[in-house]
Amino acid sequence: MRMLTEEQVRAYLQRLGVAEAQPPSRAFLFELHRAHVERLPWETIDIFAGRPAAIDVRQSVELMTGGRSGYCFHLNGAFGALLRTLGYQVRWHRGGVQPKGEAPRINGFHLGMTVELPEEPPGERIWLVDVGLGDMPYEPLPMQFGDYAQGPLTYGLTASGEADNGWRLVHDPLGAFSGVDYAPDVVPGPGAFERQHEMYSTSADSPWINLFLVRQRHATGSNELRGCMWNRRGPQGMEATELRTMADWLGVLGDVFGEKLVRYSALEREALWNKTLALHETWKRAKGR
Fold first, then answer.
1. What are residue 96's DSSP bridge partners?
2. For the CA atoms of 40, 42, 48, 49, what is the dihedral angle to 10 degrees?
3. Minimal CA–CA distance to 207: which of 97, 288, 284, 113?
4. Which domains does the chain have, with CATH numbers?
5. CA–CA distances in Å: residue 91 to residues 28, 128, 187, 286
6. DSSP readout, 50-93?
7. What letter does residue 252 receive in the DSSP assignment?
8. pLDDT tens digit sequence for 184-226
9. pTM of the complete model
10. What angle do CA 8, 15, 219 make, to 5 degrees?
11. Which percentage of the chain shows pLDDT scores above 70?
């Protein structure tokens, strides 16, 4: 896999708010992970706009260094490339997200990642590193089965019933999905997921074609912008705010999620808002609101 240039590493770290590269360590891995989920949101914006970005590593890194973002194939693809360039031992895996009320699966519609730290003691050498789930862990999880509290959310790590020697991330009951199952087999990179990306990006059956969704984690909770609804989860529970104007919507996108819509002109941003508002009004009528 192509490594990042020194210029790309500097730009990526600058986007993360990290001053400089350090030798591989658990502490630096945690710092990078926290910065990534705070500053680079999981989002469906380009798919919603009908302008999906390719998932090859080169373009995914350009998204991150260019002030944009993406979803799991972009986020974990780019982050994995950064970590490898910094000297970490990275492995990509096929995964599958289990929506609430549906069965577990490993269908390749999620790109997962593990990182090995050979210098750490047994039990702390391999870590589940996933910055591509949106409603995701704030920090890496050790590949040891158990429960792990992070802010107001608790995650579980167990054996997967979907693949021999696979593992399952069990989400907090308050989370946006039930869990994620991962296969142990190593895949060469995001290019192995082109078929899944095409479905998510262009198919009428994609859940993201008509859903404007941006998610971000932080130390004490998470933020989600779903259409015109800004949902904030923290220690005191969930708070929802309806954004009724384009100015408020763009303000939350920029101030909370760091998403400035740099790829879009003023007219295109207005078109995105109008589409989002129309779908929001349809949703409200369906709910009798």
1. 181
2. 10
3. 97
4. 206-288 (3.30.2140.10)
5. 18, 10, 7, 44
6. T-PPP-SHHHHHHHHHTT--BSHHHHHHHHHHHHHHTT-EEEEE
7. H
8. 999 999 999 999 999 999 999 999 999 999 999 999 999 999 9
9. 0.96
10. 135
11. 99
